[in-house]
């Protein structure tokens, strides 16, 4: 990571920013990935709550 931080200013001084699309695509990919993971986690949380609600009264009645 230190190497990346140290080389960024050197890359920014070049005339042709060939690395800019790469950096942007990695950043956008990371954002999409985080959003997808959060969405899946939210769906799993909701389904777990629904399952607990569905089985709650029956388990209490049996117990």
Description of the structure:
- It is a single chain.
- With 63 residues, the protein is an all-alpha fold.
- The protein has one domain.
- 86% of the residues lie in helices and 0% in strands.
- It contains two helices and no strands.
- The chain is rod-shaped.
The secondary structure category is mainly alpha
Tell me the domain tally. Answer: 1
Estimated share of beta-strand residues: under 5%
Gyration radius (Cα, Å) is 24 Å
* Average of the residue pLDDT scores: 73
Shape category: rod-shaped
The end-to-end distance, rounded to whole angstroms, is 56 Å
H/I helix tally: 2
Keywords: Membrane, Transmembrane, Transmembrane helix
Transmembrane segments: 18-44
Topology:
Layout: H1 2-12, H2 20-62
How would you describe this structure in keywords?
transmembrane helix, 63 residues, membrane, transmembrane, 2 helices
Q: Summary?
A:
With 63 residues, the chain is mainly α.
